[in-house]
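Ticket #4471: structure export looks truncated?
Reporter: QA, pipeline team
Priority: medium

Steps to reproduce: submit the single chain below to the structure queue and open the exported record.
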Amino acid sequence: MTYQDNLYKIVLLVHIIAAIVAIGPNFIAATMSRAGDTAVAKLATTTGVIQLPAMFGVLVTGLFMLTAYPDNADGKSAFAQAWVSIAFAVLIVMAVLLFLLARAYRNNNAKLAAPLTGAMHLLTVVVLYSMVFQPGGVG
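Actual output as written to the record:
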């Protein structure tokens, strides 16, 4: 195992941890939002201060892995693969939804937070499918 292989694995680990931190809290948000105003305020803080920066970490580590370790088996850029485009599009939409979710929590707007959280759950499935099965990928 080379230094580059170990570095790639470390960056991949950070990428996965950042994704869990960015997406994970959405799975308890519905329960916490019913716990009262203090819990909703904590959700707003978590979304704005922890989840959004973690989403940025997902972007940075993903870009690093694609540019530092490109998969050139077909002679094309890694960015030409469909699954990469899907992942970037979903990441952008999820970041916007997280921003809107933080705002909904700050405004104590449960009617807006619920569908935004549901959309985040659906996009989580889409991005996981894209990462695991890599539609349009090389190989």
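Status: closed, not a bug. The export was complete when the record was re-opened. Leaving a note from the reviewer for reference: The CA atoms of residues 73 and 139 lie 8 Å apart.
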